Amino acid sequence: MTNSHAGSSTADSGEPEQELLAELNRLRIRAARSRGKARLSLQDLAAATGVPRSSLANYLNGNSVMPMDVLDRLLLALGVTPAQAGAWATRWERVVGERLATGGPHRTAAPDTDRRVADPAGPALPGTGPQADPATDRPQPALPVPAQLPAALGAFSGRRELLTELDGLRADLDATTTAPVIAVVTGTAGVGKTTMVIHWAQRMREHFPDGQLHVNLRGFDRRAPVPPSDAIRHFLDAFEVPRMRIPGDLEAQINLFRSLLTGRRLLMVLDNARDADQVRPLLPGSASCLVLVTSRSQLPGLVAAEGARPIAVPLLDRMESRTLLGRRIGARRMAAEPDAVDGLIDRCAGLPLAIAVVAARAATHPHFPLAAVTAELRDAPRRLDPLAGTDSRVDVRAALSCSYQQVSEPAARLFRLCGLFPGPDIGVAALASLAAATVVEVRASLAELVQAHLVTEHRPGRFTCHDLLRAYAEELAEAEPAQWRRAATRRLLDHYLHSAHDAELLLQPPRGPISLATAAPGVVPEGFTHRESALAWFAAEHAVLVAAVDLAAGSGHDTHAWQLAAALVSFLDLRGHWHDWTSTQHIALSAARRLGDPAAEAHTHRFLGGAATRLGRYGDAREHQQRALHLFEGLDDALHQAFTHRSLGWIADQADDHQTALRNDLRALELFRRAGHRIGEAKTLNSVGWCHAQLGDHRAAVAYCEQALAMLNELGDVDGAAVTHDSLGYVHRMLGEYDRAAELYHRTRELYASLGDRHGEATADTNLGDTLYEAGDHEGAAVAWRRALAVFDDIDDQKAKRIRASLGNIASTGHTLG
Question: Which terminus of the chain has a lower count of CB atoms within 10 Å, N or C?
Fold first, then answer.
């Protein structure tokens, strides 16, 4: 049987080698004619190159592989230019590589990578290592061992988890046999990516005996980025490759560089990369190399295509910031002024570059109190001014600017607009409104900003940036025309107001209509399909919405201020955020007074009264509700008079003045019926029934409450139904019908839980516990009270104390609690 593969390697590699040898012969003829000769003899070539005549004959006839240094000397003897010699070197390496790889008949000796023979003639053929020239028996030189890493920072501290992750890369390198190990270390400007990588690399030098390469690619720098061709030449110079051997073609240079690295245990640090295209030509092909790329961009292309491992470098936490500052200014100085140190750390926002600048300021003025440095940071007109310097490498604003200048104009505009949003983070629809752009357009710009580490998607769909980036965005926004800023702020507030108004309608039937102005063009309100989505949006936007009320009042949008505060009431009440309820309504009241709008002022007084009642401030609550009632009477607004009378009844009930409560509720019932507001009527029927129960008329109480429950079920008002079940539970408990009362309280708890009303759910558990205790079920009572206590510990200290007393009472009687 014939082996079809026999001899194929020799044939494949022999053909191009013969072509190159033929070209060399033509060069001999051309060189001879230029010298007036018919042909250069082997003796002439031997004299010019220093290579024995017999060896040259073997090389030129193809009997032996011509070593690269011999080829270099021969080409010079034949008058070839350095650039042409580089191209020849690349072509010859391909031929020799094929002969070596296929095991051709003239294969040279195996490489000996452990030998290090210095030789001024330059490095040996890439990949072959030191070997003997068969003609001269002279050892070929080994490659030098580059050590290009910059010095590590002496004051480096922290980053233990990240350093451990880098240690894992070295372990991966030991295990891999197919590809180099690549990691992309990313983070915002000034976060210390390079400092950490160099610190780790310097510790690991002994694990990379064939060298450490480093290049600053200047991807985010005021100077032009380093092109791959320059970086490759930089690396070839590190291996002392003669210039005449370096090809002019970039692809050939890359091939030569990768050949040099084959089989070598080497560490590469590609620092400050702009994008994947700048990095890819520099990546080795050898599985024995570890590559660390640092960049302000996430470089997702390298992660996807080259399998690079992403390593994100976050801001320092407070403890890490304190440690770094102490390494620079000394523990004794830190201990002497702990409050000033806290102020310094706060102003630096966890950014190592900012800490370095502040520490340098303190260190160069050792007799200045740290409090003076803190005051300088705190009192500066612009937050970044004290973090600037004459050296751009330690100027926080300059560092952030380099990142900002790399993004497209739509992304840059969106970043400037980020200086206007009020809260800790922002959603996509709000950003679209801020920019008067489509969601699709904004997502594209956000992706760019996230990759550049100018914003962070810290939760799905929620974007933020650290305090110093926010300060930089604010500076950029401040440089825009005032009309531009005001229009963008109006769109943002329109987004929050219309979204909150729509969401509140799903949480609770309206307390009376509040008409909103039409949103500005470009506003993208949130879309809610059900109550749960509205509640989830309120929860995500809680801090932002509270801040937006303040922004509206501070930027001259007073109508937005009071209406947005009104739209938050249901959510803040459901979740027990009564202090936020109070603070936003005080802002709203000032805005309403500036507007000179009595209706707005009346609404705000009524909402302030509700918050004061929740907080047990019944005197304040009554005063606000009386002012609201007076204003609504002046406006002849019967519906809101009804709401206010019902609120006054609630306050009187909380103060155990049940007769006054009943009078207000009956007046509210009359006004609701006159206005045709059936939900208000149904809820007030329950309030009247409750008052009768408090006054001891249980028969009347049941009648009113059951009438209310029928109407509320018909209208689909779950909140009202929950309150009414609670009222009926109380009545049956007072009648000694504990099983029925417990059943009603269980149902009350279920309804409040479905609404996400923590306070209502905890109140139902409290009442259930009271009922079970009176029925003799102390174990069941303790379980219910403990559930209530878990909620009241967060939102209502007085009720929490009352429940603890009840639990203590059970324990004091000797009952065992599970």
Answer: N
Question: Which residues pair with residue 293 across a beta bridge?
Answer: 184, 270
pLDDT tens digits for range 698-737: 999 999 999 999 999 999 999 899 999 999 999 999 999 9
Confidence tier at 103 by pLDDT (50, 70, 90): very low
The answer as to whether 372 is a domain residue is yes
Residue/partner pairs of 137-140 with CB below 8 Å, 24 or more apart: 139/115, 140/67, 140/69
Residue 110: name the closest of 89, 132, 81 by CA: 132
Quote the CA–CA distance of 414 and 423 in Å, as a whole number.
16
- The span from the CA of 226 to the CA of 591, in Å, is 56
Q: Residue 115 in contact with residue 133, Cβ under 8 Å?
A: no
Range of the domain at 349: 318-397
340 and 285 share one domain: no
Structural domain total, the chain: 3
Note whether 345 and 214 are same-domain residues.
no
Output the six-digit token pair for 185.
């270390």
Question: Phi and psi dihedrals of 82, rounded to 5?
Answer: -55, -40
Residue 448 lies in a domain: no
pLDDT for 512: 57
Q: What is the mean pLDDT of residues 63-81?
A: 78
Q: Are residues 322 and 305 in the same domain?
A: no
347 shares its domain with 293: no
In one letter, which amino acid is 559?
A: T
544 has a pLDDT exceeding 80: yes
Nearest partner of 493 among 522, 456, 535, judged by Cα: 522
Q: How far apart are CA 546 and CA 564, in angstroms?
A: 9
Contact 683, 723 (CB under 8 A): yes
CATH number at residue 39: 1.10.260
Residue 463 has phi, psi (to 5 degrees) of -120, 145
Same domain, 232 and 358: no
Q: Angle formed by the axes of helices 82-102 and 8-34, to 10°?
A: 160
- Cα–Cα distance for residue pair 331/157, rounded to 1 Å: 14
Taking the alpha carbons of 574, 576, 577, 581 in that order, is the dihedral positive or negative? positive
Phi and psi at 496, nearest 5°, equal -65, -40
Q: Is the pLDDT of residue 467 over 60?
A: yes
- Is 605 part of any domain? no
Q: Do 329 and 248 share a domain, yes or no?
A: no
664-702 per-position pLDDT tens digit: 999 999 999 999 999 999 999 999 999 999 999 999 999
Residues 360 and 303 in one domain: no
DSSP symbol at 78: T
Regarding whether 299 and 284 lie in a shared domain, the answer is yes
